[in-house]
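$ ./design --mode recover --in tokens.txt
reading tokens...
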């Protein structure tokens, strides 16, 4: 199966064509955020303050990269368990977030928000953090530096490999896989 190349920021017409199981290569800007950064983003939204970046059309990668070794822009940058962001994701999706990258399944509330507001969830391969980091061409902390590796970073990526797990139609690759192999 051919890989689909997409560029950020994501437009509705692009993500409406993505289906569960599609192999995708992402190029452009992707932001990082984990648990504590998500909590702060939601607090900022709820208080009516300005976010550190515009969520519209953006992708958040659930990762906390290790420090960059000499000659590299970033250290290992593998996906973290996405369910830890489930309580925050619907608020961010409603504000315009169009994509998320992580590992593991998402809760019903997140899937419902993705269907309603047209967003997608991608999985990156866990255990391949060093290889994934080679697709990151630039990294800079843009917010919440006090969170260390969990600070929000602006990444420039080129052909970052992911798989569509949840599409805008509510399909779920994990559920399809379990049904396929259930006896």
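writing sequence...
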């Amino acid at each position: 199966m051919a890989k689909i190349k997409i560029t950020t920021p994501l437009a509705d017409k692009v993500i409406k064509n993505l289906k569960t199981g599609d192999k995708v290569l992402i190029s452009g800007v992707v932001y990082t955020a984990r648990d504590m950064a998500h909590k702060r983003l939601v607090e900022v939204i709820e208080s009516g303050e300005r976010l550190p970046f515009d969520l519209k059309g953006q992708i958040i990668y659930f990762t906390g990269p290790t420090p960059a070794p000499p000659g590299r822009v970033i250290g290992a940058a593998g996906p973290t368990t996405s369910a830890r962001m489930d309580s925050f994701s619907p608020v961010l999706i409603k504000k315009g977030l169009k994509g998320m990258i992580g590992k593991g399944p998402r809760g019903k509330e997140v899937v419902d928000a993705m269907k309603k507001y047209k967003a997608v969830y991608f999985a990156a391969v866990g255990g391949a953090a060093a290889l994934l980091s080679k697709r990151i061409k630039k990294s800079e902390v843009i917010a919440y530096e006090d969170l260390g590796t969990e600070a929000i970073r602006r990444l420039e990526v080129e052909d970052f490999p992911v798989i569509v797990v949840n599409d805008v139609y509510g399909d779920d690759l994990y559920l399809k896989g379990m049904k396929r192999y259930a006896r």
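exit 0
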